[in-house]
Amino acid sequence: MRAIIIPLTFGVAALFVLVDSRRRLEEKWKLWTIGTFLGAPFVLPFYLALRKLKEGEVRRGGKAFLVATNIPIVWSIGLACLGLPACAHIPIVFSSDLEASVFIYIGVWELWLFGMGGIIVFAQLLRRRDVVERGPTRGR
Predict the structure, then answer these.
(1) Domain ranges of the chain
(2) Burial class of residue 40 (count of CB atoms within 10 Å of its CB; 0-12, 13-18, 19+)
(3) 49 C-beta neighbours (distance < 10 Å), count
(4) Strand, helix or coil for residue 116
(5) With 139 labelled, which of 2, 55, 71, 88 sits at a CA distance of 20 to 30 A?
(6) 73 vs 76: CA distance, rounded Å
(7) How far is residue 45's CA from residue 64's CA, in Å, rounded to a whole number?
(8) pTM greater than 0.85 (yes/no)
(9) Which tens digit of pLDDT belongs to each residue from 22-64?
(10) Distances from the Cα of 31 to the Cα of 21, 47, 93, angstroms
């Protein structure tokens, strides 16, 4: 069961990209879909930042800012999809093992918080307030 979680998660992300890119008439929809299936945590933030805009959509801040802001979102969703099923296999422990489990749990959340927080702060440094794109966007 554990071996199927990652391909399944990447497959769902690739299916989203496939459907979304076809609706947006992306010319390179095959590359985006294959790239997402092979490396969703790395490709999906770029797809979300660079995809064509539909009528009425607005994108602000510049491409580097958008990629950097999409990374915490994609990685958080990915960690939830991968982490929740893994938690079902963690045995319930008592006494001194409980303290160790709490320490590890808090440590993982601190790593996530500081890592994602750092990326969000970095993204704000990349933000360009003068860059505004309005849909629909044409080919690149």
Answers:
(1) 2-130
(2) buried
(3) 19
(4) helix
(5) 71
(6) 5
(7) 10
(8) no
(9) 999 999 999 999 999 999 999 999 999 999 999 999 999 999 9
(10) 10, 10, 46
